[in-house]
Design goal:
Chain lengths: 284, 387
């Protein structure tokens, strides 16, 4: 594994990533790497700061301290500033000097797509439109050309690709349905299809199996494997379903109260004492 | 699958309707002594429909609740008004302070243009000035959400009105005296009083519809539905909100310019907040998120307010008994009650967020009567022209 890793490109790397809200440290010195073609899971008990870590990576929040690199380029970097200087509880406050903040849409353009823990579809729009909209980020035509419909070829390509994506996720027969009317599992699939429409290289899945029954979870596991191969993706996901996590991940990061407590292959994590303690509590 | 006619059928029906409307307008123009009231109400209706559709672009399609319409209409009206007053009337209009020399000589150079070209240029100029203002105001204001945005834009509209009426601008806007002698709709042969506003409205609304159907329109809708998800899908929130705000303001100002030509004389008091409310009312009645709804709403509200309900304003005596309540102003009471009824029974406006469809329109009577039979258990849907 280690030898393999050395040859592979690092897609995503966080260095001392810290996110502090007031006095609460949600993510504490998270240093993680995701290699090309891997499926990496981020697990931890509720409130461990997993989604916050995702939000920092995708630009929703600016980190308090630390750095995020994507394909080697810095997409976020910050050090405690202003009021945070006194409040900051971590170390390495002077390790980073630049302030680099990219907006979520700029990070999406760098080929990172995500789904949300609580599904965020464009509810009143059709299944087809949901996927079509995600193609907008790669649109070449300007407003005037688009408004006068002079980019017919581009529009046609976008529509074809959207249909193709829907076919892959198995929702093409529901293309005209209002997305909010879909059953829960299908909404999750649609959200993944929509994320794929932005043509990502790195896909961040925030609890893709939340609310699914065991059978649906198994289907999802196969599905994630399929799209990973088909679209040559690297996948970084948050998940609670241990069957899914253990069955599909190449490596797992475990965090608790924002701090990274373990990293390793599924087999290593299953036998890690710190992880067991975090989930089950320490025996007195 | 949605039931609908084939594309060709719809196209033929639309073309027929357009030709029909054209000839109706053409015929009506020739009968202006007989149908003066109808013509002026139609003019006002179509002018407000442009403003309503532009507001819908912002509120219904981008999810930005702005109340700056009156301000942008004022900009459009004043720019159009100032540019189109005939040069020989300038001195009599600006009789108190006179017009600034630079502006006057600029108007003299423009006077060589034939009047329809001048009017078109003036309308576009009004739109552009409003768009520039929208671009500048949008930078701070569009970072606000929902009600805060509404209040900020409302404030902006009031500032515009106050600035226009301020004595410092006497030589340009004629301050609080207003602008008179604005030429009306005229193609030169006494024609055009309906064809001009309807033609401009057709162009403006057509452009907005094209924009909404483009990829940018879909991006606007995504922002309306869920801005966090939209941003995560790579749609730059600020850029797209700004775009929608600027385009909406451009067309709102064109509507304001037409309003100036309709009223022939304008003053800043005509662009108070009440004008914004009128447009908001049309948008809500027609259906937030429905272009055709806004157009239907504009005509319905204008017709009801200015014409159909006039009856309630004239005191009536039958057999020596004066009918109570019928007096000046009662019309507005009835109007308000009707509005409440519409909002109660058509909660999402007349068309909801669907668009007019020929199928829905032509089969509406049969569905309406079917609905009343107890046999069909399916509950009827809200809109009149729903699909």
């Amino acid at each position: 594994m280690n030898k393999q890793e050395a040859n592979r490109k690092i897609v995503l790397q966080t260095e001392d990533l810290t996110m502090q809200f007031g006095g609460v440290v949600a993510v504490d010195h998270l240093t993680a790497s995701v290699y090309e073609g891997e499926i990496v899971a981020l697990i931890g008990p509720n409130g461990a700061g997993k989604t916050t870590a995702f939000n920092v990576i995708t630009g929703v929040y600016t980190p308090t301290n630390g750095r995020v690199r994507l394909f080697g380029d810095v997409i976020a970097e910050n050090k405690p500033r202003g009021k945070m200087k006194e409040l900051y509880k971590g170390e390495d406050a002077d390790a980073y000097s630049n302030r680099i903040v990219l907006k979520p849409h700029q990070i999406t353009k760098l080929r990172v797509a995500r789904t949300f823990q609580n599904i965020r579809l464009f509810k009143a729009l059709s299944v087809f439109e949901n996927v079509l909209i995600a193609h907008h980020t790669n649109l070449k035509a300007g407003v005037l050309r688009a408004a006068f419909h002079l980019n017919g070829h581009e529009e046609k390509m976008m529509a074809e690709r959207s249909m193709e994506l829907l076919r892959i996720v198995g929702l093409d027969h529901l293309a005209d349905e209002i997305s909010n009317n879909l059953p829960y599992g299908m909404q999750r699939r649609l959200e993944i299809a929509r994320a794929l429409a932005t043509e990502p290289k790195l896909l961040l899945l925030d609890e893709p199996a939340a609310g699914m029954n065991p059978q649906e979870t198994l289907d999802l596991m196969d599905f994630i494997g399929e799209i990973k191969d088909q679209f040559k993706l690297t996948i970084f996901m948050i998940e609670h379903h241990m069957n899914l996590v253990m069955g599909i991940s190449d490596r797992i990061y475990v965090i608790d109260f924002g701090k990274q407590i373990a990293v390793g292959t599924p087999a290593e994590i299953q036998n890690n004492e710190a992880v067991i303690n975090a989930y089950l509590g320490v025996a007195e | 699958m949605k039931k609908d006619f084939s594309k060709a059928t719809r196209l033929i029906l639309s073309l027929m309707a357009m030709v029909g409307i054209f000839f109706l307008l053409f015929w009506l123009e020739g009968q202006k002594s007989q149908y003066g009231m109808l013509i002026s109400v139609m003019q006002k209706g179509v002018i407000l429909s442009i403003a309503a559709v532009s507001m819908n672009l912002l509120t219904g399609f981008t999810g930005l609740f702005s109340l700056g319409q009156a301000g942008f209409m004022a900009i459009g009206a004043y720019v159009t008004g100032i540019l189109t007053i005939p040069v020989d009337r300038v001195d009599s209009v600006y009789y108190v302070n006179g017009m600034s020399e630079g502006l006057k000589s600029f108007k003299e150079t423009l006077a060589v243009l034939p009047s329809p070209v001048l009017v078109a240029l003036a309308l576009i100029a009004g739109g552009l000035v409003a768009a520039i203002f929208a671009g500048l105001v949008g930078i701070p204001v569009l970072r606000l959400k929902s009600d805060y945005l509404a209040i900020a834009t409302l404030g902006f509209a009031e500032i515009i009105r106050a600035v226009i009426a301020s004595p410092q601008l006497d030589k340009i806007t004629n301050g609080s005296y207003g602008i008179k002698a604005i030429p009306g709709f005229d193609l030169g042969n006494g024609r055009g009083m309906l064809l001009i506003p309807f033609g401009v409205a057709f162009l403006c609304i057509g452009l907005i519809v094209l924009l909404i159907k483009s990829s940018y329109g879909r991006a606007f809708k995504a922002i309306r539905e869920d801005d966090i998800a939209a941003e995560a899908m790579g749609i730059g929130l600020f850029k797209h909100k700004q775009l929608s705000f600027i385009i909406s303001s451009f067309f709102t100002a064109i509507s304001g310019g037409l309003l100036a030509m309709f009223m022939r004389s304008i003053e800043s008091r005509a662009f108070q907040i009440i004008l914004t409310y009128d447009i908001l009312l049309i948008v809500v009645i027609g259906g937030i998120g429905s272009i055709t709804g806004s157009v239907v709403g504009a005509f319905l509200v204008t017709f009801a307010k200015e014409w159909w309900l006039r009856f309630f304003d004239t005191p009536l005596t039958i057999n020596g008994v004066q009918i109570p309540l019928l007096r000046q102003g009662f019309r507005m009471v009835v109007f308000s009650v009707l509005l409440m009824a519409i909002v109660l029974f058509y909660r999402k406006g007349l068309l909801g967020n669907t668009e007019f469809s020929w199928y829905g329109f032509l089969t509406w009577p049969s569905r309406f009567f079917k609905r009343k039979k107890p046999v069909s258990a399916t509950p009827g849907e809200g809109g009149a022209g729903d699909e």
